[in-house]
Amino acid sequence: MAIKKVRFVIQKSSFAYTAFGGVRFYKSEVDMVNSGSQVSASPTSGETQNFLATSDAGYPSTNAYYLPYLVDTNKKQTGVYTDLCYWLTDSANATYTITVEFKVPLDKIYKIEFVPRPDTSTIGANRGIDKPFMLELIDENNKVLIQPTINPTTQLNTIQTCLVPPLIKNKILLSSGDDKYYSILSEIATENYLPPLTGNITEYAEISASSVANTTNNDAWKAFDGDSSTFWSSASVKTGALAVKLKRKVFLGQYVVGFASNVSVTATPKDWTFEGSSDGVNWTVIDTQINQTWGATEKRVFKINRLEGYDHYRLNITANNGNTSLILHELSFNERRFKEVGIDNSTENTFLKYGVNDKLLLNANLSGSKFLKSASATLGSGKSCEHTIDMSKRRVDKITLG
User: Fold this and answer.
1) Distances from the Cα of 198 to the Cα of 108, 207, 220, 224, 226, angstroms
2) Could you tell me what percent of the chain has a pLDDT over 70?
3) What does the pLDDT look like over 4-30, one tens digit per residue?
4) Residue 300 β-bridge partners
5) CA torsion 277→108→134→78, rounded to 10°?
6) 199 is a domain residue
7) How many Å apart are CA 113 and CA 32, to the nearest integer?
8) Is residue 54 part of a domain?
9) Is the dihedral of CA 161, 52, 21, 34 positive or negative?
10) Domain range spanning residue 212?
11) Do 271 and 343 lie in a common domain?
């Protein structure tokens, strides 16, 4: 159950202009979701590297209040209108809807910050919101997960925080009809999925790159050879993609990007997307990173929250840290492995601890199994339901709760 969109349903204010500013999303108390740089902007729509924003109203007379400024983390959260930190409209609509869509869905949102009265200049007294508004968190199936009502502060230039309540998640257990229950849990392997490679085409994988500076010393496979002193280098361009074709579909739990200080840090990747594909043509963004700067030799681990498997993966680098070329010392993967777990009861604790969230993959390769026996307990306030499937008539590969 991932969060794909956040929607603000705002009532027309009592001020001459309805305004709203400084929106920030946090995955934890301090982990803010970066918007990335702006791609496009208009009074009612816009795009950043990580967000898409739309609204049913805006202020077309000046670009100072275009919609993407509302969520642009490169701008100030508070200040005067010249700081370009808020959205504005003088439309006569009774309500306004602003939708922010995440290009990569979020597993959770811990809190949301916003500024109901965002302007401290002399004109700021006649703009803002002063009536309760609705906040909606929406999943990938366009289902509203929660819908709290927010009472905005009336103080000028004040950041207000809304703590998002934990999402109640569905849990799935399977039963064989004999009072035994089963789940499929996952864990991330500690070892690299690929052994050290010795060329672009091996029995384990095929490696390719958008460009190569020197096929002898800096070919694409050098990022997969297990040697931290060697690297792939692009052909005098600041952007590029490094791709791998695996021998089978693999579910990844994380990927690792490594840098060694035997080259200039300005050649290191700064902005990128990590992507998966089933055909090497159509790519799905799995993870996005912005403003990654590097110092001494280091490896960085990036977790993957999407439960999807591919046989093609690539690191699509859209900016480096200033050099005329792009260098990558290491790219490695850790597989997500699945294990069958059998349980002798269906108590609430069993559902919460071993139940699968939303999606149960029945066609994943299992790396092992175990059976757990525990003391019984009654179900609490949670709701449970059962559905019988005749497996002699139907094959089931995946179960998803809507």
Assistant:
1) 40, 11, 11, 8, 10
2) 86
3) 999 999 999 999 999 999 999 999 899
4) 257
5) -100
6) no
7) 10
8) yes
9) positive
10) 205-334
11) no
In whole angstroms, give the CA distance from residue 22 to residue 100. 13
Closest by CA to 165, choosing from 179, 149, 181, 154, is: 149
Q: Which residue has the tokens 């004109």?
A: 123
What number of H helices and E strands is found in the chain?
Answer: 1, 29
Contact 346, 384 (CB under 8 A): yes
Q: Which helix (H) or strand (E) element contains residue 353?
A: helix 348-354
| DSSP per-residue letters across 294-334 | --SSEEEEEE-----EEEEEEEEEEEESS-SS-EE-EEEEE
First and final CA of the chain: distance in angstroms? 9
What tokens does 89 get?
């409209």
Same domain? For 226 and 327 the reply is yes
- Do residues 21 and 86 lie in contact, with contact meaning Cβ atoms separated by under 8 Å? yes
Whether residues 12 and 153 share a domain: the answer is yes
Q: Cβ(224)–Cβ(199) under 8 Å?
A: no
pTM, full prediction: 0.59
Which tokens sit at 298? 């280091």
Domain co-membership, 178 together with 324: no
Single-letter amino acid code for the residue at 129: I
Q: Which amino acid is at 336?
A: R
The CA distances from residue 256 to 46, 106, 225, 304, 332, in Å, are: 32, 20, 14, 11, 5
